[in-house]
Amino acid sequence: MKQPKSDKIAFIVGAGAVENAWLPIIKALQPFYKQELNGDAAYCFLARLVYLVRFSATNTYDGAKERAIEAVAYFNKLKQAMARELKIAQRSGLLRTRKEFKDILYKFIFSEHHQAILITTNWDKVIDHKINELGESNYPYSGSDIQTYHIHGDFDEPQEMYLPSEIVAEAYRTKSENEKMGSLHSSIWRTLEECNISVLYGLSLDPLDAELSQTLTAGWSSPNIREIIIIDPDHAKVANRVKFLTDDRYPVKIVGYHPADLDTPVHY
């Protein structure tokens, strides 16, 4: 009997895949901020902080060097606080996968004939643990756990946690830190090049994260890509952004699903 074709699937997830994803971040940042925070305000606050650190590290005004050192120290203090709260929230169960997560895995990811990798923008490891608790992958043939890339770092290495709008080459990082992060992103887009299907879940492709968009563009600029599946309440908005990241040389099918209705595809 002829065996079904084996596809390589990239499961790409963001904060929207995890319940209460921003609550530990808000808790960590609140002591540093006078006004009450929500997820959107925290995101804005962190992006502004990245700008200030970058500004201090790339200017030559009197005292700029000292200001940059202070800014980076403050930066790292925040990251330590965020990592600590994320670990507490994960252990307590405050951070958890959404109710549709299992259905998504069994419909789009798990298959005895498919190979899967996980790419996550999240600092926590809720998705990593749950996906390997529920199933396993035969990719890359070196073990049962699904190969995982934390494209924005994770809470085990707070200094390497990416904040909104950060990029791989920052003047306030050491050369080795920049090289390590650059190597990670290169590995991700090269791995994406091998994949036939990408499944985006809980990832809005915010315009502020241009580097993530470029990494996906590089990975999708491959004759191997055949289909991009978007699982999001506003999949139309995400699909519109995805269209601008794909390569006209390699036609790709784009399909959207609402998380509450995985039986009704919308084709774009």
Order of helices and strands: EEHHHEHEHEHEHEHEE
Number of β-strand runs:
9
Task: Tell me the number of structural domains.
Answer: 2
CATH topology of the largest domain: Rossmann fold
Binned strand content: 15-25%
Polypeptide structure, described:
- Helix content is about 45%, strand content about 15%.
- The protein is α/β, with parallel strands linked by helices and about 270 residues long.
- The chain has two domains: about 180 residues, 3-Layer(aba) Sandwich (Rossmann fold); about 70 residues, no CATH class.
- The strands form two sheets. A seven-stranded mixed sheet has the order 5-4-1-6-7-8-9, with helices on both faces. It has a two-stranded antiparallel ribbon with strand order 2-3.
- The longest helix is centred in the first third of the chain and has 29 residues.
In short:
It comes from Mucilaginibacter pedocola. The chain has 268 residues and is α/β, with parallel strands linked by helices. It has 8 helices and 9 strands.
Task: Show the helix and strand layout.
Layout: E1 8-13, E2 18-19, H1 23-29, H2 39-58, H3 64-92, E3 96-97, H4 101-109, E4 115-120, H5 126-134, E5 147-150, H6 175-194, E6 197-201, H7 210-220, E7 227-231, H8 235-243, E8 253-258, E9 261-267
Parallel strand pairs: 1-4, 1-6, 4-5, 6-7, 7-8
Antiparallel strand pairs: 2-3, 8-9
Protein name: SIR2-like domain-containing protein
Organism: Mucilaginibacter pedocola
Offer a few descriptive terms.
Rossmann fold, alpha/beta, single chain, 16% strand, 8 helices, 2 domains, 7-stranded mixed beta sheet, 268 residues, two-stranded antiparallel sheet, 9 strands
